[in-house]
Specification:
single chain, mainly alpha, 363 residues, Growth Hormone, Chain: A, 16 helices
Length: 363
């Protein structure tokens, strides 16, 4: 993700608007694919078998990137790749949470390994590309996808016997009518939409402010290192503070982070501090949101619950953020783009405060 917009600009020659559109197309696949696969898994089971199939299809679709580089073709490849890639992630979340049973506060100690993988990649890949050349970028991605697919055969499936034994079965519609779920999902959409400029243009933003590629990779890594540190320390936080409070706090800090990035990009200390806030804007946000979703969606809806969270927040929110950032980047400028992103997050924080009002409602 950090280097993909750079690849689209430098190797293919797409404009900022085209890159924003392509990232929005990629994010749009997150809206529908997790829900489709989540529905299939909840109805027919075979969660791990489904993950293995969609992982294989992810490889096949991404391999199309080597065929040609027209805008339409790349858009199709990014949508199909995103469709299958994003379908498997919520199901892995469900398997993890089912293994943990009532110890969901331990989720972060497992999730941190994904962050460690990210750190290794954003530091190691630029070094490899300096040595091998940027044309190897897509080959490296393909090899990583093959490794991910192979790793699914090291995992065993796990079905939760009882998420809430005393909770009556509920339809998805009845859960979605609850005010707390509506507030949660709206806040998630706005939170992720605010990340659009960051995920799409952060690398280019630093390049334009005369930071080196190595420093840019280090900044991406620093954000995720902070995320890992939070995952290591979050278990006492989750036990001391309610997930609602941690969720709301993370959205507010996100708004502050984008303001720092808007006005302080030329100040290295401010830039470093804003990257450290990634621990809260992503790590704390995701860990608390996952726990709230797991709490309010019963066993029969676990797959669709995680899929709905991923589809609306990272999917719909990603589409809004990716497309709007591409347009704003060229029309209003880089600083104002991050100010608008901060406004999105601030609105999400106001909505998240409703979680405290409706948290005692029974489903």
């Amino acid at each position: 993700m950090p280097l993909w917009p750079v690849y689209l600009e430098r190797e293919i020659g797409f404009s900022a608007l085209q890159i924003g559109e392509l990232m929005a197309i990629f994010m749009s696949s997150k809206i529908i694919s997790p829900l489709i696969v989540g529905w299939l898994v909840d109805h027919y089971g075979r969660r791990l078998e489904t993950i293995r199939w969609v992982s294989l299809l992810t490889i096949i679709c991404f391999a199309g990137i080597f065929v040609e580089s027209s805008f339409i073709w790349i858009a199709m490849i990014m949508f199909l790749f995103g469709f299958f890639w994003n379908a498997s992630l919520p199901q892995f979340e469900a398997i993890t949470l089912n293994y943990l049973h009532d110890n969901t506060d331990r989720y972060s100690s497992i999730r941190l390994w994904g962050s460690i993988g990210f750190i290794v990649t954003v530091i190691g890949t630029p070094l490899l590309l300096v040595w091998l050349g940027f044309e190897w970028f897509t080959i490296i991605i393909l090899l990583l996808l093959i490794s991910i697919s192979a790793s699914t055969y090291l995992v065993k499936d796990k079905t939760s016997s009882s998420h809430h034994a005393s909770m009556p079965k509920a339809s998805l519609r009845s859960v979605l009518k609850q005010p707390i779920i509506i507030a949660l999902l709206l806040a998630c959409v706005l939170q992720q939409a605010s990340h659009g400029a960051y995920y799409t243009f952060f690398s280019l933003y630093l390049y334009e402010h005369h930071y080196s590629p190595d420093f840019t990779g280090a900044m991406w890594a620093l954000g995720v290192i902070a995320e890992v540190a939070l995952f290591l320390l979050i278990q006492p936080l989750m036990q001391r503070f309610h997930a609602y409070f941690l969720f709301s706090f993370s959205v507010l800090i996100t708004a502050i982070r984008w303001l720092l990035l808007a006005y302080g990009v030329d100040n290295t200390a401010v830039l470093i501090f804003s990257q450290l806030l990634h621990a809260i804007s992503y790590g704390l946000f995701h860990a608390s949101a996952i726990q709230i979703v797991h709490q309010y969606f019963p066993d029969s809806l676990q797959g669709r619950g995680q899929a709905l969270y991923a589809g609306l927040s990272f999917g719909l929110g990603g589409v809004i953020g990716g497309y709007s950032s591409g347009y704003l980047w060229e029309s209003v400028g880089k600083t104002d783009t991050f100010i608008i992103a901060a406004s999105m997050a601030f609105l999400g924080w106001l909505i998240s405060l409703l979680l405290f009002r409706y948290r005692d409602i029974e489903i």
